Amino acid sequence: MLDVGKFYDLPGLMLNDEISLSCLAEFDTPIDVGTFEARTKTVLPDTTCLWLYTPTLYKNDKANDRFSGHFVPFLIVPDDEARAQGKARVGWLLDQNKTAAKGIWLNFPNDTDLAPAPGDPGAQGRFRMNFPLRHETIDPEFVRNDPGTAMPDPTLAGAKPLAIVAIIDLGIPFAHSNFRHSGGTGTRIDYCWSQSAPHVPGGEVLFGRQFSREQIDALVSQHGGDEDAIYAATGMLSSVGQPPMPLGRMHSHGAHVMDTLAGNWPADTAAKVRIIAVDLPTSSTWETSGFGKDMFVLSALHYIFDRADRIRATYDCADLPLVINLSYGYSGGPHDGTGVIEAAIEEMVAARNAVVPTAVVMPSGNMFQDRLYARISDAHFVPDGPDKTATLQWFAPPDDRTSSYLEMWYPVGSVVTDINIKITPPNGPALPAFQIVKDSSGYFGANIEIGGKIIGQFTVDLYRKSSPQPHFRAMVILAPTEPPANLDLQTLPGQKHGPAPAGLWTVAFKLPSGNGLPGALEVDGAAVASFGIECRIQRDTSFGQGNTGAKQCYFVDPAHVHYDAMGKLAGQDEPGQATKVRRFGSLNGMATAGSTLVVGGSVRSSQEPAFYSSAGSIVDGGYFGKQVDVSAPTERSPFLTGIVAAGTRSGTTVAYRGTSSSAPLVARRLAQSWVAQTTTDVAGFLDKLGDQVTQKKSQLGRVLPLNG
Amino acid sequence: MQHGLHGLHGLHGLHGLHGLHGLHGLHGLHGLSGASAADPGALQTSTQALVYAAGLEPLPAAGVKPLFPQSPANMARWAPDIRALLLQSVFAEKLGWAMNPAGTQASVTWGSTAIWQVTRPTPATMATQVGLVRNYIDQRPDRSGEIMSQLGPFGAFFGIILGLTAARNAKTFELLGHVQSLAGLATMMPKHLLACRRPDEVDARILPLIQTPGHGAYPSAHAAQAFAMAEVLTSLIRANAAFFPDTEKRVDLLYRQAHRIAVNRTVAGVHFPMDSTAGARLGVQIGRVLVGLMTGKSALRPAALFDPNAAPDTDFLYADFAAASVDLTPKPTAATPADPLFGWLWAGAMAEFGGLSGDGA
After folding, report:
1. Which of A259, A396, A659, B99 is the S-S candidate for A601 at Cβ 3.0 to 4.6 Å?
2. How far apart are CA A180 and CA B22, in angstroms?
3. How does DSSP classify residue A63?
4. Radius of gyration of the CA atoms of chain B, in A
C-alpha cells in the first residue's frame, strides 16, 4: 500500500481543509480545449459535486488560430453541496481516489490516466495534482471552459507601446510608486493578477483577483496613496487562520525582482513599455511538500499571453514583443528541456514566437556549491562479484520536518533492466534490492521499510513517456526525519511509519561487469561515451514565510573538494573522473528548455562569478546541454552583498542575493533594446553581447555590460 | 550500596558554586535579592548624625514579639538564594542513588522507589552515537543564539509559552529557577557514577560550539532540567484549567520546548542523543517528585530500565520520547506527602494564575 505518505503533506500550511486542487493535464497529441472536460471528468471520484475549471487560456489571435497545446492547467472545485457535506478536504479526495492519491503522494510520479481522444484510442492523456487552493480565492462566476468572455478590453492610455514586460513572482506590490509614470499620470501596470487574493465578482480570472490599470489607479486615489490601506482593503495582507501573505512584510521577492525589471524607467521609455504581472500564491514556494506549482505558472503564462494580445489589439500594434521574467528555480528535473513545466512553456513560447518576438528569462540558480548534483559515470564502478557497483552517499539532516527527494536520471536509451539499485540506511544494513515490476500503468513503486516501519518510498518511472526523449527516473523519497508537529505517529491507521533515520544514506548502482552505462550522447557535436546517471537532490529549504521546517539534504563525496587550499569555496570541479559531486551541471531545473534565456550572477566590483551561481554541465572538457546564456551582477562586491532594489512599500529598499536579481536586469535590457529598436529579437540581443562559445568557459556566459 | 544525603552539612558546598555555575539556575534569582547597596561609609556618617535622637532608655523587659517557629510563611522573609538552599535540603533528604558492583547500571531513588534506572553506554555505543552528534553540526548557525542563551537559567523559554512576565510572575519564575536547580543537582551524582566522556573526546571532528562542561556526558542535565520544568509547569497550568483557553496545546509546546533545549546541546556538540534520552527520563521523574512535594497530589512511579546499548543508533526524537514516557509511567502508586516549604513556593505560583472574573467572591 503506497498510501501513507499523504500524512506528511502540507506541514503547517493551513490548507488541509481545502479541496480545490490545481492540476496539470498532459495529452499525447495537442488537445482542443473544447473536448477537455469530457476527457478528464471521467476519472474523478464523484462527478456530481466536483467541477473542472480551466483558467484563461491563450488564443493566439494574431495567427488567427486558437492555440492548442499538449498541456492544460485546470482546477478541481467542489460545489457548495460537497463543502456542506464536509467533503471539502484534500484528505477526503485522496481517500475517495487512491489512484489520484498516488499523484499527490510525495510527488509519486504515477499520473492519473485520462480518457483517450475521441476516434484516436492511442492518444492518451494524464494529469497530476498540484497545490490546493483556498476556496475564497476561486470565482464561481468565471465562465467555465470559455474563459475571459466577461473581460472588457483595455482602454487606450497614452502612446502606442513598443514592448511588454511581464513578471511571474511572489509578492507583487502593484501600488508601488516605482511602477507609476513619473508625471503622476497613474500606474504603468496594465494588468496584475494576484492569484492568492480573495476573489471579487466580475468573472475576470478563475482564482485570485485581477487588478487592471484603471482599478489600481482608482485604489491609489481612493486611499490617498496609503499602500497599507490598499493592500488591507484588497485582502493582500496576512490574516488569522490563513497562509501568510508576502505583502504583509516590508520586503518581498516579487517587489525586488519587479523593481529591477520595470521600476523607475526613464520617462521616454516608460511610455513605450507596458507591464503585466502575475503574483503566485504563497504556497508556490512550499516545494518541500511534494506538490507542484506547475499549474500556477502555466496559468500565469496563458494569462500574460492573453492580456498581451488584448493590449496589442487595443493599440492596434503591428508587432508588440514580450519579455517574461520568471525568477524561480529548483534543483530536480531531467535537465534537457523535457521537464513538464519546461515543455509546457516551450511550446507556448514557440507558438507565440512564430508571430511576435517572445522571450522567457530565468535565473541559472543559486546551487553551484550546494552539492545537489552528482554524476555516476563508468569510471565510478568497481568490481563486485560477477557484477560491478558504483556508490553514492547523501546526507539527510536531522530535524527535517519535510520529505526529501533523490532523483536518479538514467540516460536516454536505457531500459528498465538497467536499473538495479540498492539502498543502505545510516548505520546499515543494506536493504534488500527492489525487484522492479511495472504495474499496469508502467510505474514501479515500493515502500522503504526499516524495523517494520515505512520510512520512505522507492519508485521507477519512464518520465513523460510521450516526450521526444523519455528518461527512466528512479527516486528515493524519504519521510521527514522529525515528524511534523501535527502528526501523531502512534495513532495513524495502517502500518507504522516514519520518521526516516537521519544521517548518511548510500545508494549502490549495479551493472553486469561487461556492460558500460547505457545510452550515448553528443558533446559539442561529437559523440562521447555514456554521460552517466545524473543524480539530483530536490530543493528542500524553508523559503520566505512558509516555516515548513525543511532542511536540505546534500551529497557527500570524499573526492569532492569543497574548499580550496586558501580556504575559499573552490570555484571549479575537480579534474579527472574520480569526483561524483559536480558544480557544473547544477543549473536551474526549470530553465533548460531551448528558448529560455538563462542568466547567471556575478560580483559587480570584480566581474567574477558569484560563488553560488549555477552553471551547465561540462563533460570531458566539453559543454553538454543547456548553458548559462548571459550573466549580470547579483553582488555589489565581496563585502557588500546582494543587489539593492525596492521593498514592498514605496521608498523602501532591500538587498537580495541570488540570480533572481540578475535575470530581471537582463530582461529589462532586452526590453530596452526592443524599445530603442537596436535589436528586434532575442538572438539579436545576445549577438550584440558577444559569442557564447568563446566566453562560456566559466559560470558567466556572455557578460552584460554594466552600463547598458 | 545506597547513600542518602542527610542534613545540611553536605549542601553548603553548593552555595559556593553559584558564581561559577550557571547550571543550577540561581543566577536569575540574584536580581530579586533586594535593596540597592549604599556605601558603608555613607551609612556610618548618617548614623552618627541621627543616633542621639533615639535616646538612652532600656528596652522593655518583655522583649519583642518573635516570629512563628517552623512556619513556612517565613519563606517570604528569606532571600531567594537561601530559599534555594532550604528547598535543596528538603529535596536531598530523600534522594538516593546506587550503582551495581560491575559499574554497568545506575539508579536514582526517591525514598524507597527507584525512579530512574539506566545502563552505562559501551564504547561501541558511544562510537555510534557520536555519528548522530555529527549529523547536527550543520545546524549550529541556526541554533547558536538559543545555545548561548541556554547556558544559564532558561526559564524564559518556557515563559514565552505561558505568557509569563517578570512584574506579574515573580513566583512562577522563582519556581522555575528552583526546579532547574534541583533537577541539575539530581543529575550530578548519576553523572559522577556513570562517568561518561563527552563527544569531543570521542571524535576529534566534533569541535563543540561551546566549551565542554566539567562533568560527565550521561545523563544530560539540560534534558533533565528542561523536562522537569515542563512537567512542573504542566501540573501548574492544569491546576488552573480556567486560566488558559488552550491549556493542552501549551502543555504540548512545553514538552516540545524541553525537547528542543535538550537537542540544542547535541547541536552544540556537548551531548550524545542518548544523554538527552536518559536525562529527559530523569527530568520527568524529578518533576513528578517536585509536584508531589508541592501539592501532595503527584505520585511516585517506578521507572523501566533504559539501555542505550540496545539500539545504539537511536536519535532523541520528540515522538519517540513521547511514546517512551508512557512506559515510564504505568500508573500512580503511593502519593508523595506535601512539604510545607515546597507548598509555600507552589502557593505563590498558583496565586499568579488567578484574578479572573468569576474567581472567588
Report:
1. A659
2. 58
3. T
4. 23
Give the torsion sign (CA, A133, A136, A139, A140): positive
Q: Are A109 and A463 in contact (CB under 8 A)?
A: yes
Contact (Cβ atoms closer than 8 angstroms) between residue A179 and residue A269: no
Tell me how far CA of residue A571 lies from CA of A565, A579, A656, B236, in angstroms: 12, 15, 22, 57
Among B247, B261, B249, B233, smallest CA distance to B321 is for B261
**Euclidean distance between CA atoms B233 and B256, whole angstroms:** 13
Contact criterion met (CB < 8 Å) for B132 and A489: no
Positions in chain B whose pLDDT score sits under 70: 1-36, 298-300, 323-336, 359-361
Closest partner residue to B317 among A395, A482, A551, by Cβ? A482
CB contact burial A518-535 (16+ within 10 A = b; e otherwise)? bbebebeeeeebbbbbbb
CA distance B230 to B248: 12
Q: How far is A551 from chain B (nearest CA, A)?
A: 9
User: Residue A383 is placed in which grid cell?
Assistant: 568490481
Give pLDDT, residue B18.
Answer: 36
For residue B34, the model assigns a pLDDT of: 44
- For chain A, what percent of residues have pLDDT higher than 90? 41
pLDDT of residue A491: 53
Above 80 in pLDDT, residue A656?
yes
Kindly give the residue spans of alpha helices, DSSP state H, lying in A200-291.
Answer: 213-222, 227-233, 253-262, 267-270
Tell me which residue has cell 527520563.
Answer: B281
Alpha-carbon span B116 to A76, nearest angstrom = 56
* Residue A100 and residue A129 in contact, taking contact as beta carbons nearer than 8 Å: yes
Which region holds residue B100: left if phi is over 0, alpha if psi is between -120 and 50, else beta? beta
Check: CB of residue A653 under 8 Å from CB of residue A644: yes
Q: Which of A399, A485, A501 sits opposite B139 (nearest CB)?
A: A399
The mean pLDDT of chain A is 82
Furthest C-alpha separation in chain A: 79
Report the sign of the C-alpha dihedral through residues A70, A74, A76, A78, in that order.
Answer: negative
Q: What cell was used for A494?
A: 495502517
Q: Which of A42-46, A130-134, A187-191, A656-660 has the lowest mean pLDDT?
A: A42-46
- For residue A509, the number of C-alpha atoms closer than 13 Å in the C-beta half-sphere is 28
Instruction: With CB atoms and an 8 Å threshold, state whether B136 touches A489.
Output: no
Three-state DSSP class for A595?
A: coil
Cis peptide before B219 (omega within 30 of 0): yes
φ/ψ of residue A23, rounded to 5: -140, 160
Cis peptide upstream of residue A499 (ω within 30 degrees of 0): yes
Q: Is A417 on the interface with B (CB under 8 A)?
A: no
The answer to whether A572 and A413 are in contact (CB under 8 A) is: no
Burial bucket for residue A95 (CB in 10 Å: 0-12, 13-18, 19+): middle
Beta-sheet pairing, A358-363 with A597-603 = parallel
Q: Could you give the CA distance from residue B286 to residue B305 in angstroms, rounded to a whole number?
A: 16
Phi and psi angles of residue B297, each rounded to the nearest 5 degrees, phi first:
-100, -15
Contact flag A503-B317 (C-beta cutoff 8 Å): no
**Length of chain B counted residue by residue:** 361
Mutate to test the interface with A, among B130, B138, B139, B260 (most CBs of A within 10 A): B138
Of the candidates A592, A612, A534, the residue with the CA atom closest to the CA atom of residue A365: A612
- Cell matching residue A122: 492511442
Model pTM score: 0.85
**A361 falls in which pLDDT band (50, 70, 90)?**
very high
List the Cα angle A201/A292/A456 in 5-degree steps.
140
What are A471's three cell numbers?
A: 528518461
State the ipTM, two decimals.
0.73
Q: Taking CB atoms and an 8 Å limit, are A502 and B315 in contact across chains?
A: yes
Contact between B132 and A503 using a beta-carbon 8 Å cutoff: yes
What's the pLDDT band for A137 if we cut at 50, 70, 90? confident
